[in-house]
Each structure stands twice: as C-alpha cells, then as structure tokens.
Write a sequence for this structure.
C-alpha cells in the first residue's frame, strides 16, 4: 500500500512539474510575441523631439535589420541609425528592402559601420536626401537602393570600404557630380548611374571586372572616365555615347584587359537608339 501511495505521489509531482514548465513556456512565448510586436526604436533630435520611428526585425541571435522608417513630423530632418538597438541589445547589420521608400522629409541618413548590406529600393525616391556616407563594413548595395534621389549630390565611401557590388540602378537619376569608386568593388550593375546628368568625372579602381548595360548612359556632362585595368565584361552602352577613341574622356591603360574588352565589345557610337531613353522597367515594389 505504501509503495502504491509513493508511486501516486511521484506521478502527481511529475504532472505538477510539467504543468508548471508548460505555463512558464507559454509565458515566455507570450513575452517574446509581445516584444516582437513592439520592435520599434524612436529617432529623436538633440532636444528630445521624436522625429520618427524605426521598425526592425531580428537576424540570428544578436543582430537586427531595419525594415521601415516612419516619420513623425512633416519637416526636413536627418536620421541617425544606432549601432545597437538599446532595449533589444541587437547590432544593426542591414537596411532592408524599401525601408526608407519615398521618405521625402529625410535629408540624410547616418549609418553605423556595422551595416553590411543595403537592400533593394532601401532609399528609393528619397527626394530630399543630399548626402550619403556609406558604412565601412558595407559589402553590397542593392538594386534601386538610392534610385531617383533627385537631390543626392554626394556619395562618400569610407577609406577602407569593403563593398564589392553596386546593384542595378542603384544610383540612377541622382544629382551626383563626382564619383570615385573605392578599390574592392568588382561589379557595377546595369544602369547603376543611369541618367546622372550632373556627373562630370568618374574614377574606377583596378578591382572592377564588370560594368553592366547602360551603367553610365545618359550621363551627358561627363568630362572624364578613368577605367581600371581589369574590366573583363562591359554591357551594351555601359559608357553611354562616349566614342572609344575620345582619349581625353576615356582613360585606361593601353594593353590592359580593359583595352581588349573595349576593343571587342564596345563600338564607338554617336547616340543611343530611339527606344533606349530609359532602362527596362523594374518594379521596385517587388524587390526582395
């Protein structure tokens, strides 16, 4: 009898422990859900005025990606993204697709060096943005990332930048005046600087291996393009309408890989075809 009572007692204690643990798990899940629903971070000015709100998602166990910025005021202002989300203790490593899509009040975004990627259409049509300082650890810039930022005149890469890819149309129809791509960039995408009509000078490093179709087409103000020595691929109209024999505009090492590529795939032309006044349509709303 005593043995039976002991068995019953053990069973009851086990049920109690399981029930307690289940309740604890449910409470933890509820807490996580509530926290997930409030993944917000307020951007304030020096006076404590709330300028807007960042929404972020988690990546892995200790990282975060900014997914959306919502202005709280209808005035021009800059945004400083924190390196670490204080409450969540997550390091910000990326700007997601369309995160600042058409934020017409944002004049500049200051990104921490922890950011490694900028997503497709991240700053698309931010019409008041005039300056971009790209993070040191940035490795890729997505397609349409800064496209049609009509006030954007300055793109500044960090001295030790590690970015390797500039996506399709990344800076198309911006107001950039001078462009110096840092060593390490290998690919410049299709239409990356399409119709940057104020662009006067371009300098590309030896690391660049491929320039996409129409990358610099429509940049009619260009006075000089300095090309690296190792360009192996060059799309149609990559350098716009600049004839290859215009040596005062096109500068590249004779006998280099680049010289051979130009000779084989780029013909001297006077104008773009009538149906090439714009790039193929690309729906930024569907960018991943």
């Amino acid at each position: 009898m005593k043995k039976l009572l002991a068995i019953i007692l053990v069973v009851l204690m086990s049920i109690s422990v399981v029930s307690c643990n289940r309740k604890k798990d449910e409470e933890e899940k509820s807490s996580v859900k509530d926290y997930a629903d409030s993944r917000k971070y307020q951007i304030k000015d020096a006076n404590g005025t709330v300028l807007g709100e960042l929404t972020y998602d988690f990546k892995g166990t200790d990282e975060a990606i900014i997914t959306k910025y919502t202005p709280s005021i209808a005035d021009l202002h800059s945004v400083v993204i924190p390196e670490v989300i204080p409450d969540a203790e997550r390091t910000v490593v990326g700007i997601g697709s369309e995160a600042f899509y058409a934020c017409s009040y944002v004049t500049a975004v200051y990104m921490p060096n922890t950011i490694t990627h900028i997503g497709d259409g991240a700053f698309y049509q931010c019409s008041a943005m005039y300056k971009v300082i790209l993070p040191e650890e940035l490795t890729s810039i997505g397609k349409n990332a800064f496209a049609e930022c009509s006030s954007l005149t300055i793109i500044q890469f960090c001295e030790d930048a590690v970015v390797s890819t500039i996506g399709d149309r990344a800076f198309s129809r911006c107001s950039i005046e001078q462009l110096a791509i840092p060593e390490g960039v290998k690919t410049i995408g299709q239409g990356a600087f399409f119709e940057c009509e104020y662009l006067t000078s371009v300098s590309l490093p030896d690391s660049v291996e491929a320039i996409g179709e129409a990358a610099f087409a429509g940049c009619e103000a260009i006075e000089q393009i300095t090309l690296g020595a190792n360009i192996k691929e060059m799309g149609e109209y990559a350098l716009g309408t600049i004839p290859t024999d215009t040596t005062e505009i096109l500068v590249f090492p004779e006998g280099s890989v680049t010289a051979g590529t130009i000779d084989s795939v780029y013909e001297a032309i006077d104008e773009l075809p009538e149906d090439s006044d714009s790039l193929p349509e690309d729906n930024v709303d569907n960018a991943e």
Q: What stands out?
A: The first helix runs from residue 2 to 37. The helical segments are 2-37, 257-265. The longest strand covers residues 50-59.
